[in-house]
């Protein structure tokens, strides 16, 4: 039975080319391949998370003399708060310093790694308040919605075609100072890379309207179609065009857009008909000490936060690689030489429905002549998917690869087996690990 020494010599000498051609690629039934990108809709932004950010900004104001204004300790504390969340979520952050009125101001810039560096989509909000209050609607609301959208990008593992950047501006209340500084220090070659800037300043007004900036038509339409989809009528923003940070970008030719729920202007009776509320100021606490967490309309904040995410997802043409559930057995299983088949089992639980058409089968078999080994995936119902055939000529070591199997006719949950059988004498090995990614 043991003819192994001559066989090895013959195989190496005579079948080396055949081995290269036939033995290297896995079986045709299961080609290793990259995961295809899947288009994805924007997630629902959890209102509770956005509101928690507002509660935290309120606490920062309370602990710092009641405001988060330029040059006051509450402003820098706000920057540190937002930055810590972004750093923990995998953003590349930078704090940009500028000087205004003899005082240091700060912009916070956060880049999401990846995407086309020549197509930058940016969303921003001013993070400063006026000195008379905590600035929770103006502009904790925009700051919190942009922050939570950035965190949602991280949670989704978004891989957008465009490069995503987020910004929190200082000293907006003193004349768009921070955003002007940011744009001013960008070389014109960098400005040219912006495909758009989205601005969110006051998006939770207590007596809200739903206003969309009428600047770049694509951005405007993206917001309008979001609101149309949830059955909420919008109007064009007219309460002071250029009164927020988008003007800094627009002035250098960058396409801009944004959302707004109204400031000190009074809601008309026609607008009350349309949106509900009362024929009073959209925000009676605008630039006042009563702009606290009590000065927020939750429905407006919720809808606008979801609109931010919708715009980021659709305008960056994002795709996601879903996290994928992984099941693995790392126990070693010896494969007897020229002997019976052995198996390594993983018990799959908690996966709804069938297995995917792109089930990833991670195989790690250590072996001194892998051609000896036939490798199969066995579904819970006993269906067999051949991953690798026998090959007398494939003299390479080990089977360490990920196969993609169309397992869409199999129920996902149950005991899946990796089956290995050594069909020729002398060289031996073992299953090192077996991993399934759903
Ligand atoms: N932060 C802005 C300001 O104090 C609020 C504002 C007023 C606004 N009118 C606007 C924001 C129009 C966007 C669009 O001026
Ligand atoms: Zn303001
Ligand atoms: Ca063998």
TrEMBL record:
Residues 321-438 form the P/Homo B domain. Coiled coil: none annotated. Keywords: Hydrolase, Metal-binding, Protease, Signal, Zinc. Residues 1-30 form the signal peptide. InterPro entries: Galactose-bd-like_sf, M28_fam, M28_SGAP-like, P_dom, Peptidase_M28. It comes from the Bacteria. Belongs to the peptidase M28 family. M28A subfamily. This is M28 family peptidase. It comes from Streptomyces lateritius.
């Amino acid at each position: 039975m043991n003819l192994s020494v001559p066989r090895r010599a013959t195989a190496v000498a005579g079948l080396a080319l055949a081995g290269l051609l036939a033995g290297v690629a896995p079986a045709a039934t299961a080609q290793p391949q990259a995961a295809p990108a899947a288009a994805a809709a924007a997630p629902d932004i959890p209102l509770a998370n956005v509101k928690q950010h507002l509660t935290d900004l309120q606490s920062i104001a309370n602990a710092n003399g009641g405001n988060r204004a330029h040059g006051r300790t509450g402003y820098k504390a706000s920057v540190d708060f937002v930055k810590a969340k972004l750093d923990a979520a995998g953003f590349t952050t930078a704090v940009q310093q500028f000087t205004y009125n003899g005082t240091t101001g700060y912009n916070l810039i956060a880049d999401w790694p990846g995407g086309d560096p020549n197509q930058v989509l940016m969303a921003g909000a001013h993070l400063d308040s006026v000195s008379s209050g905590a600035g929770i609607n103006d502009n904790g609301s925009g700051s919190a919605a942009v922050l939570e959208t950035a965190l949602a990008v991280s949670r989704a593992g978004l891989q957008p075609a465009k490069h995503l950047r987020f910004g929190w501006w200082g000293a907006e209340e003193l004349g768009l100072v921070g955003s002007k500084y940011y744009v001013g220090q960008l070389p014109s070659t960098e400005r040219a890379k912006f495909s758009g800037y989205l601005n969110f300043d006051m998006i939770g007004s207590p007596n809200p309207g739903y206003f969309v900036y009428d600047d770049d038509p694509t951005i405007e339409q993206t917001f309008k179609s979001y609101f149309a989809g949830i059955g909420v009528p919008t109007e064009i923003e007219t309460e002071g065009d250029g009164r927020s940070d988008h003007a800094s970008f627009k002035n250098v030719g960058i396409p801009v857009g944004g959302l707004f729920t109204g400031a000190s202007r009074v809601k008309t009776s026609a607008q009350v008909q349309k949106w509900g509320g009362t024929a009073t100021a959209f925000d009676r606490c605008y630039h006042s000490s009563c702009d606290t967490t009590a000065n927020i309309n939750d429905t407006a904040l919720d809808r606008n936060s979801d609109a931010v995410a919708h715009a980021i997802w659709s305008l960056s043409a994002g795709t996601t690689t879903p996290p994928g559930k992984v099941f693995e057995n790392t126990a070693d299983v010896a494969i007897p030489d020229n002997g019976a088949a052995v198996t390594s089992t993983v018990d799959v639980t908690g996966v709804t429905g069938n297995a995917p058409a792109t089930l990833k089968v991670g195989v790690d078999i250590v072996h001194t002549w892998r051609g000896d080994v036939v490798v199969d995936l066995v579904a819970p119902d006993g269906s067999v998917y051949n991953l690798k055939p026998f090959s007398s000529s494939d003299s390479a070591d080990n089977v360490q690869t990920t196969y993609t199997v169309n397992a869409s006719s199999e129920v996902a949950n149950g005991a899946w087996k990796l089956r290995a059988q050594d069909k020729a004498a002398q060289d031996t090995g073992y299953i090192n690990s077996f991993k399934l990614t759903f």
